[in-house]
Amino acid sequence: MIAKKITYSGRVQGVGFRFTAHGIAARYGLAGYVRNMPDGSVEMLIQGNPDDIDSCLGDINDEFRGYISSSEIEELPPDPSLKSFKISF
Q1: Which of 18, 35, 49, 61 is catalytic?
Q2: CATH number for the domain harbouring residue 57
Q3: Which of 3, 70, 72, 81 lies most in the core, judged by the most C-beta atoms within 10 Å?
């Protein structure tokens, strides 16, 4: 199991990003959260099987190809307390 924090920039708020990311992450059985940030970016913490994370991130990038201008990925230690994926407010 691995964990990653991804910060998406671009036109990623107000376009259904969190809702869609939640659905995609749930489809892969991943844990973590997605939330809007005050600077207009979206932060996502995602945890699970490395192949499932890669597939999830690929699906998100495909879905929001015209909206994401950049993304930063940071590897984090897994958090065993995360059991599901949620939208944080």
Answers
A1: 18
A2: 3.30.70.100
A3: 3
* Count of CB atoms situated within 10 Å of the CB of 9: 16
Active site (annotated) includes residue 49:
no
Number of domains the chain contains: 1
Q: List per-residue pLDDT tens for the chain, 89 residues long.
A: 999 999 999 999 999 999 999 999 999 999 999 999 999 999 999 999 999 999 999 999 999 999 999 999 999 999 999 999 999 98
Containing structural domain, residue 28: 2-79
Q: What angle do CA 63, 8, 32 make, to 5 degrees?
A: 85
Rg (CA), the chain: 12
Residue 87 lies in a domain: no
Q: Which of 11, 35, 36, 49 is catalytic?
A: 36
36 is catalytic: yes
**Mutual angle of helices 17-27 and 50-63, in 10-degree steps:** 150
